[in-house]
Amino acid sequence: MENQKELCIFFVVTENEINSGAFESCISTYLDQTPSLKYKSDFFIFCNKINTEKKITKIAKLIKGSEFVNSIQFINLDLDQNLDCFWYPWSTKATIKPGEKPRLGYTSGANELFYRSIKEMFKKDYKNFLMLESDTKPIKENWFDLIFDYASQNNFEIAGSTYKGAASWHKNSEYKDHINGVAIYKNSNKTK
Predict the structure, then answer these.
(1) 128, 184 in Cβ contact below 8 A?
(2) Which helix (H) or strand (E) holds 158?
(3) Average pLDDT along the chain
(4) pLDDT tens-digit profile of 40-71?
(5) Which of 82, 111, 94 is nearest to 12 (CA)?
(6) Is the dihedral of CA 66, 68, 71, 77 positive or negative?
(7) Given strand 69-76, what is the order of strands in its sheet?
(8) Any idea what the Cα angle at residue 98 is, between residues 94 and 100, rounded to 5°?
């Protein structure tokens, strides 16, 4: 399999997704689906916090065991507790509303995780990056080859699904057009 700089993969994950096993399950699904017949990929995994080296070591071993994986790097963003919040006013979960609204809103944790991660990715030497989240999965064998071909043959800055939302008022919300979950980002000044 060929090493390449056209497309790498980065995940944005939370400490909770690592501790609960959600990320490990996700990554297993991606690697078990025969990602590519042609290429290897580098993996960058950005975490809001890493407090469990044992889990990270186990996940890294799982990922490195795939012939598809060229390299893997875990990056601990160590988000400040005041910024690392995720609270919705309509949520039924027993989460506590932050005392002061962070600059990136009450879902600041997810927003900080994404923006800090993508900022770091723009410093990498790849033409494109594929962002994945722990609640996604591939639906087809050779999924990476299909995405690789799309990225190398099409002109785009960001390619991905827009948020659909479950609430009827979603179509009027400020985030109605944001990219959701999985996207390919061109490493370009225009995308930045």
Answers:
(1) yes
(2) strand 158-162
(3) 84
(4) 999 999 988 887 788 899 999 999 999 999 99
(5) 111
(6) negative
(7) 69-76, 41-47, 7-13, 128-132, 179-186, 158-162
(8) 160
